[in-house]
């Protein structure tokens, strides 16, 4: 399923979306152009794993011989990670990131993303030289004959038949 770039205000204009080939190439270019600063990975929405992986790779690379002096920040939009991982696992993830020298910002909704910052719902503004957004999806742009919801996803029953047409089965990201 494609990324829902406007899901976080300002993200479509100011963030990179590294979960597709073009977005990853842009992310690489933006990282390569940095001499310092903070790289933020915002995880939100339905697909969080790739964002956690990218933030972890960046965090672990810091301090390696030849690495540039970048700070890495993992931002979990609202309770996104808590809902999917649970409190105990989230604490372990946060501790691991911090052991690599990365910052974690958990449990606060992201209000917007600007060209050089992330604005949080609690009033904080976090500087960010590059902001990557991972997770918000939208359904594919298909002729669906009324099978899809308002976001373009296909609601299904537990064994994957369409919720509105039981003779149609759906699997994969569009579900």
Record keyword descriptors for this entry:
alpha/beta; 3-stranded antiparallel β-sheet; 27% helix; 175 residues
In summary, what is this structure?
This protein has 5 helices and 7 strands, in the order ααβαβααβββββ.
Descriptive overview:
It is built from 5 helices and 7 strands, in the order ααβαβααβββββ. With about 180 residues, the chain is of the alpha/beta class. The strands form 2 sheets. A 4-stranded parallel sheet has the order 3-2-1-7. A hairpin with a 4-residue loop joins strand 5 and strand 6 (about 125). The chain is globular. The protein starts with 10 loop residues before the first helix and ends in a 41-residue tail after the last strand.
Give the helices and strands, then pairings:
Blueprint lengths: L10 H4 L6 H12 L4 E7 L5 H13 L8 E8 L2 H6 L1 H13 L3 E6 L1 E4 L3 E4 L4 E3 L2 E5 L41
Parallel strand pairs: 1-2, 1-7, 2-3
Antiparallel strand pairs: 4-5, 5-6
- Write down how many β-strands occur, each being a DSSP E stretch of 2 or more residues: 7
Walk across the major sheet and give the strand order: 3-2-1-7
Provide the gyration radius in Å. Answer: 18 Å
Series of secondary-structure elements, N-terminal to C-terminal: HHEHEHHEEEEE
Largest sheet, in brief, is:
4 strands, parallel
Task: Please estimate the helix content.
Answer: 25-40%
Number of helices: 5
